[in-house]
Design brief:
Elements lengths: L1 E4 L20 H12 L2 E4 L5 H13 L6 E2 L20 E3 L10 H10 L3 H7 L9 H5 L3
Parallel strand pairs: 1-2, 1-4, 2-3
Helix pairs in contact: 1-3, 3-4
């Protein structure tokens, strides 16, 4: 499976343009998905230029290498006006509806094909009670 992974807010806390504090278990889970499940990971970020290079290097220093960065495959050449939409089977991004689940839940959902609620239950956790719209409108 090809998995596109955001950087800011997903692998590290939001502190753009700086690199935020690591989000616990993010890199560990991503490495396990590569090693155990043989998924291809693509870094998918709004970062460009030096800021993108810093993010890639941060991941590399922590033992995480991506198949490609902001493109579908390493050899892909950007074209003028081309969409940066990736051809991925799954996207991991903190801007998902409902936000970013715990990384243990993400791991179980991908590795074992569990539903969101089952992954929480099998991690001995209680799913959040408020849905996205309740959080958005502070209900």
């Amino acid at each position: 499976m090809i998995i596109a992974v955001d950087f800011d807010g997903t692998i590290v806390e939001h502190d753009y343009p700086a690199i935020g504090k690591p989000i616990p278990f993010a890199i560990d889970v991503l490495k396990r998905l590569q090693e155990e499940c043989h998924h291809q990971l693509i870094l998918w970020s709004v970062r460009e230029g030096d800021l993108l290079d810093e993010a890639v290097e941060y991941c590399r220093q922590n033992g995480l290498e991506f198949y490609a960065v902001n493109k579908n495959y390493p050899e892909e050449q950007p074209t003028d006006g081309a969409s940066r939409k990736l051809n991925a089977n799954l996207y991991i991004d903190d801007r998902n509806v409902g936000g970013l689940p715990d990384w243990g839940v993400i791991y179980r959902m991908i590795k074992f094909g569990e539903s969101f609620n089952d992954a929480y239950a099998n991690n001995d956790m209680v799913p959040p009670k408020k849905n996205f719209f309740q959080k958005l409108f502070k209900l």
